[in-house]
Design brief:
Length: 216
């Protein structure tokens, strides 16, 4: 009898460990959120996206990017990612050879087929058992702090304290061969800009334009 109890003891301890650790059960609330910044940056910089440009977070563990535009080649695509933009699970796109679908991870084949067949539905055809959260590509802002690290809150000239939209800061500015005094502008930070075409040097610094002409 005692020998049987000794054999049962390790099993009981294993069960207790599983209960305390939830045995790897998902949905414990400790899952890391999706880092949306790389996805939003990619969507905002895509050239062929004037017809559709949508991002969706699915079940807080995958991202679907659906975009379409007036391009002669690769005019549309739907891509399913994991939590990282480097983790491509499935892709469907237009090409010279016609529509192409690639399943990099075959376990997502059924879900991906459902998604691209139901892009017009709020739940993307997944049903009430799944979470589908649209992500805004165009973000309104009042200050640079409301934008991604590579962006600034771009506003119309003279609208220093008003509302704008987050846009990417230029990485390289074309230098003007000659900048007339009348082409200089005064930034909302009180500094004079315009040594680069279209006052690009202000945008690099994340600064909007208060008015044309140099600052006093």
């Amino acid at each position: 009898m005692w020998k049987n109890k000794n054999r049962l003891l390790p099993i009981a301890l294993l069960l207790l460990s599983c209960i305390s650790l939830s045995c790897g059960t998902s949905g414990s609330g400790n899952e890391s959120p999706v880092d949306l910044e790389p996805f939003i940056r990619q969507a905002r910089t895509e050239q062929c996206s004037n017809i559709r440009n949508n991002l969706y977070v699915i079940d807080n563990k995958a991202v679907l990017w659906d975009r379409a535009g007036n391009c002669p080649d690769n005019s549309y695509s739907q891509t399913l990612y994991g939590k990282s933009i480097n983790q491509v699970l499935c892709s469907h796109f237009d090409s010279i050879a016609g529509p192409q679908t690639i399943y990099y991870d075959s376990q997502y084949k059924g879900q991906f087929d459902t998604l691209i067949a139901n892009l017009d539905k709020p739940d993307l055809g997944l049903g009430s058992g799944h979470s589908v959260v649209p992500v805004s590509i165009r973000t309104a802002c009042t200050a640079n702090a409301g934008c991604l690290s590579a962006e600034y809150c771009a506003k119309n000239t003279g609208n220093c304290d008003g509302t704008g939209f987050c846009v990417l800061r230029p990485e390289v500015c074309p230098l003007a061969s000659a900048v007339a005094v009348g082409d200089l502008v005064c930034g909302c930070d009180g500094h004079t800009y315009g040594y680069y075409i279209n006052a690009c040097d202000a945008a690099v610094q994340g600064v909007n334009i208060a008015h044309k002409g140099a600052c006093p």
